[in-house]
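Q: Hi! First time doing this. I have a protein sequence and I read that you can turn it into a structure. Is that right? Here it is:
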Amino acid sequence: MASLAPTIATIATTAATAKTAFDTIGMLTNQMGGGKKDSGQTALVLQQLRERQMQAEQIQAERNERQKEQAALEVKQSEQLRKAALKRAMSRQTADFGARGISSTGGSSDAVLLGLFEESEAERKRREELDTIKSKALDSNLETLKKQNLLDYQQNVNQYRLAGLI
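A: Yes, that's right. Below is the predicted 3D structure, encoded as structure tokens:
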């Protein structure tokens, strides 16, 4: 569910940008008397639209960077916890072997301890894979926003051309 939050934020930002663009077109059309040609004002509106889109992209990029930094911090903390838990489990298992009178340097005890280590390594690899997927999703959301902004901009340019404002 947490991975949907960045996607929803991107969609909301894109929708807000599109609404602003359509509001601007309506305002410009009204100011121009419903269709008088004034390419200077149209160019200004398009420039302002592109600046707002670039600002939204920058905000999203910064948000993504903060989320990646937060994820890296969580990975570091999680790795420390994993190592501490592994150390405790190995110590507990070694103590258990000693209490049972089993040598902790024998073949079966080494196999048990190696199994604990391998379980811990598998958990670390799964976590790394998930972190990679999250990072790629953040990058993908930003690229989607950029593509959507470019599409919105081109649609506005085409609407102005059709209305004879360019």
